[in-house]
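Think of the structure tokens as a kind of shorthand, similar to the way a musician reads notation: each symbol stands for something richer, in this case the local conformation of the backbone. In the example below we present two proteins back to back. Begin with the first one, reading the sequence and then the tokens, and try to describe in your own words what changes along the chain.
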Amino acid sequence: MKNSLYLRLAITVTLTFVLLGYVFYWWSNSLAQHSQFQAEQRLHIELAEHLAQDNPLLQDGVYDKPALENLFHTLMLLGPAFEFYFLDPKGNILTYSAKPEKIKRKRVDLIPINQIIATPEQVPVFGDDPRHNTRTKIFSAAPVYQGETLQGYLYVIIGGEIYDSIYSAAKADQQLLRNIAWLGGSFVLLLLLLLALFRNFTSPIRLLVKDINAIRAANFDQSKVDINHWKKKTNISESNEVVQLGDNFYAMIEQINKQFQQLKHNDKIRRELLAHLSHDLRTPLSAMKGYVETLSIKNDELTANERQQYINTALRNVEQLKLLIDQIFELAHLEDGQVSVNNETFNIGELLHDIVAKFTITAQQKSVKLQLSPQYCERMVFSDIAKLERILTNLIENALRHTAQNGEITVQITKVNEKLKVSVVDTGSGIHQKDLAYIFDARYRASNAIGEKNKHAGLGLAISKRLSQILNSELSVYSELGKGSEFSLTLSAAQ
């Protein structure tokens, strides 16, 4: 099992505080040690000088090794925190207070000694520790002269080996222990506080992960999981990034469920549409098959006139089948949403004259009056001329199909505010009120449709509706049963 975000944060914070605690301890210890060295060296800065002046042997500059060894031994007994050495002018160790096997160096660097003699106020200054190959310690030093001649240096280590061991033990038992206890207590308290804060901060994330896993297990069905607690809160203190993420997650799940429902609805519509279209496709196919079979079986028995009549009927069914298939492909292409729009400025009156002229002969054959109102119009619109022509063609074809003999079809242009309304008004059979809500449905045909029912599949209005939406327009209908219908489309006037 992978570590949770809270566990990783807790481990990271713990390790960070351990590191910071160590750095703080090291820094405070170094600072305390530096202050201690500075104070002790300042306190004993003149120790070597006083010893050199007060001792007759050193005061006269006389070098007597046995006598100095005895002197240093006595001084060390009196002050066990100090170590005494006598150096020649080059820094070589001549006499010392320690046992011979304790001495690791034969020479002491004179640069720190000269520095502290010249500027005793600049402490701490560290010099070589004769008892260690690399270690340095604070010290006190004074030159020893014989007359005007430099005889050597009295070199006193402050806080010698014995002092270090005793001081370290005491420090570990007292002050250091209290400091560590105080630091450890503060560290634990702060760590617990931060862990509690992190747990509080990460709890919404854990809840979000839980909801995501639950909604996934439910196959993204929102009705099976209660995630209403992620609705946006009005409290500003609760509107942090995690809550906003949860709110977006809730909105996403809602959108996914809406799309699922829409897909199910669309799938149901497609199945119904396929069922209707299958029926409409079978009708001309069955009729065409019957006439072709009749021609094949009774070809010799038929007169030339009957044979031609059968052929013409079969051709009409072929044309109806081709029209239906073309409309199906056109509607599918529009539903894909991959249609480009080529808007341009043009004279709407000229387009309507051309469309009306295209249907004049068909209207005359049906004894229907087709007219344009007003007869002349110079208004300019900004739209896609090809798609607008397709919409108006479908509307006029639909009006001709539902208008009986001696009826009228009028294409009207009116101005509504800053837009132009183009209407196709007929005096046909009209549409029942219960059918108006479904008139633009691809699978629907009005129950009171009259005339040439076998020549259309009800897709013309569905195509026109989709085209009007692509043009950012609105195709509306008003109709009264037995009195006629009016289909209207609003267009944007050219600026």
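Once you have a description of the first chain, move to the second and do the same.
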Amino acid sequence: MLDVLVIGGGNAALCAALMAREAGAEVLVLESAPRAWRGGNSSHTRNLRCMHDAPQDVLVDAYPEEEFWQDLLKVTGGRTNEALARIAIRHSASCRNWMRRHGVRFQPSLSGTLHVARTNAFFMGGGKALINAYYRSAEALGVRVRYDATVDRLELEEGHFRAAWLGDERIEARACVVASGGFESNREWLREAWGPNEAGEWPAENFLIRGTRFNQGVLLRDLLDQGADRIGDPTQCHSVAIDARAPLYDGGICTRIDCVSLGIVVNRQARRFYDEGEDFWPKRYAIWGRLVARQPGQIGYSIIDAKAVGRFMPPVFKGEQADTLDALARRLGLDEAVFVRTVADYNAACRAGHFDHEVLDDCHTEGLEPPKTHWARPLDTPPYYAYALRPGITFTYLGVRVDARAAVHFGGQPSDNLFAAGEVMAGNVLGQGYTAGVGMSIGTAFGRIAGAQAAAAALQRPATALVA
């Protein structure tokens, strides 16, 4: 009988497979995607958020545990399991040497990403290079991989894993790691979760999926139906405001619009609806998809003037451009008078200070609702630019409850041989919100933990300690 079955093909799954193999287990990976599309959402990632107490190669200064924890606590609004969150944080300090041993390379932050030069380690070649490195290492170690292998259901007995079913094929294993992602690619489940809004619209119809089309949530649904303890809100997700022209799937990082904090954002009624300068963009970019999802027609428009050009990572596609505000409104199909008044009110409310996009500066608005807390400068220098925004869903936060061993819980009791890692359990740490790179921190930490624990369960010996 097979020792460890890993279901999934992204970062968390490969970390689990490599750890289990290093512990001496025979490992089979089942990836639902074809080989050319392997890796899930991990192929679109760029970096890993890392705790460190002093400068480390590509990381500058220090980013201690408590600061990481406070950043996470802030963006989640307290909707997080502190014990599990701190496990991910602490593992982020020691995982990179292990990653390097499996072929992953790092590079310094690039222009336009300096906000995270202290907190995040960037992968050389991005997520695709990371995934390819892990697959090469897995192959060299003897991990078997099957592609186009969609698992329909798990065979469980009171929380104990027996086998996985692929159609009529039954695969037995002594232990299993589920790392098969969330349900963000399942449009019907998104419709079910979000329902209609007050205007009778179905917001999920206008969602674009930034990552893989293969995250249908099949095993997540199966586990919940079989009594796995549930964690998270099905409407909470990593949701970014992306270019409205992005493809339905796999647009990735290049579809993101990063100039929000340098201007204003208006809805279809040409009115602002949230504080664009609330905090640093890496701590707020992943709430803007949800904010846009709540607007009429699930669309917004990021507006900047010439002063902002060169201060953010430019989008792939050019936005609308005009020399006057009313001309820009016409290009966008917005009410000209309302749009011009919105900008005028914003400009009048701006209070001059020392503008510095690298810090939480003192440029703010007064007497304006919603306010703009930082980086508020009048939009008064043509040409003016606009980018249409849609909600871009990266991954969902509904998942299964796990413990420090990554064991899936059933009725409050941990399974003895079924473990979970990655998006399928990220809701234990991410109840809402996001901060750049933390998804990879969670997936790497709990992927490695799950793999070590699965090997221990299969081989009936203590789990190997995780070392850097």
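Compare your description with these statements about the second chain. The longest helix spans residues 438-459.
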